Amino acid sequence: MKRFTAVLAVMLLASFLVPAVSMAADAYPSKPVAGMVPMKPGGSTDLMARAIEKYWIKYSSQPMVIVNKPGGGVVGTEGVVRSKPDGYTLYLGYGSGHDIVMPSLQKMPYDPQKDLIPVARVSIHSVAIVTGAKSQFNSIKDLAAWSKKEGKPITTAVSVKAGAVDLALTAFGKAAGVNIVTVPFSGGAEAATALAGGHLMIGGGHPSEVIPHIKAGRFKALAVVLPQRDPSLPDVPTLKEQGIDVATWGSVKGVAAPAGTPKEVIQYLEGTLKKVCEDPEFRKTMENLSQPVMYQGSEEFGKFLKQATADYAEIIKRLNITIN
Fold first, then answer.
1. Where are the beta strands (DSSP E) in the chain?
2. Which domain, by its residues, includes 91?
3. Which of 248, 263, 235 is nearest to 321 (CA)?
C-alpha cells in the first residue's frame, strides 16, 4: 500500500511538472527570428535590417536572421502576412511606400493596416532627387525648364512601382507641369545602379542609397522631397524652396508582425527594439547610413501610420495622381 501511495504521488507530481516544462520550452523566443526584407540586398531597408540584426542579439536570447524576398515590396510583405502569427516571422521596412502610398493608388492583395501589427518605428528618411554628375541639370528649375522647352518626358529610376519614391517623383511632375516617366526596379540599390549607368535622366532614392554615389562623384543631388532639408544632405534644397509645392513623409522604416500575433510577443519585440534603438553604437551605425533613429512604440506607430496614409491619400487626390 505504501509503495502504491508513493508511485501515485510521483505520478501526480509529474503531471504538474510536465506542463511547466512544456511552457518553459515554449517560452518566446525559443528559436531564431526571421526578419523579412521585401527588397533586394543593398537598399535602404536592407541596410537598416542588417544594422538591427547586428545589435538585436545584445538584447535577445535568440538571434534575428535577415531574409531578402525581392519582388517589388508587395510579394515579400504578403509572405509575412500569410505566415504563422507566432513572432518568428517579422516584416522589416513597415511603413514603406507599398504600405502607406500604394493603397490609395491600386488594389492590394492584403490590407497593410488590418493584416499587420505595428511593432515599432525605427527611422524616417527623405526621398532625394538626383541626376548624373555630368548631367546638364543643376537644379529642379533647370530640369523643368528643359522638359517644357523640348516637350520631352523626364525618365527617372525608382525603387519600386507605386512606392514612396515613385509617388514623390510623380507628384513633382504633376506640380511642376512636366511629364515624368518613372521606371521601377527591384529596390533602391538597383535603381541607383541604373542611373549611374546613364540609362535614365534622373533618379529618386533615399540618402543611404544615393550619398555613396554623390561622394564618389557619380551623382549630384537636385532636391529633397521633405518639408525641411534633410540633415544628411544639408546643402540640398527642398522642392518647396525651388517653387514646387510638394512635400512627403519620405520613407518610413518600421517593424511589423502578422495579425494575430500574441500581445505578449508584440510587447517583447517592441521592448527589444526599443533597447536596440537606444543603443549608442546602433544609433551611430544608423547615422552613418543616413537613417536617423526615430523610434516609436507599437501604439504610437500605429497612429502615425494611419495619419501618414491619410496624408498621402490627400496628395494623390489633390494632384490627381495615377500609377499605370
1. 33-37, 64-68, 89-94, 116-125, 128-132, 154-158, 180-184, 202-205, 219-224, 251-258, 293-296
2. 33-125+251-318
3. 248
Q: CA-CA distance, 216 to 212, in Å (whole number)?
A: 6
pTM exceeds 0.85 for this model: no
If asked whether residues 269 and 167 sit together in one domain, one would say: no
Last residue of a domain, one of 221, 242, 263: 242
- Here the cell at position 225 is 522631397
SS3 213: helix
In 3D, which of 199, 247, 200, 201 has the Cα closest to residue 223?
247
Cα separations (Å) of 201 from 146, 156, 198, 243, 250?
12, 6, 7, 21, 21
Q: What's the CATH number where 236 sits?
A: 3.40.190.10
Q: Are residues 232 and 258 in the same domain?
A: no
Which is it for strands 33-37 and 202-205: parallel, antiparallel or unpaired?
unpaired
The pLDDT tens digits of the residues spanning 142-175 come to 999 999 999 999 999 998 887 888 889 999 999 9
Planar angle of CA 70, 292, 120, nearest 5 degrees? 65
27-41, 62-76, 113-127: range with lowest mean pLDDT: 62-76
**Does residue 209 form part of some domain?**
yes
**Comparing C-alpha atoms, which of 120, 154, 123 is closest to residue 137?**
154
At position 308, the amino acid (one-letter code) is A
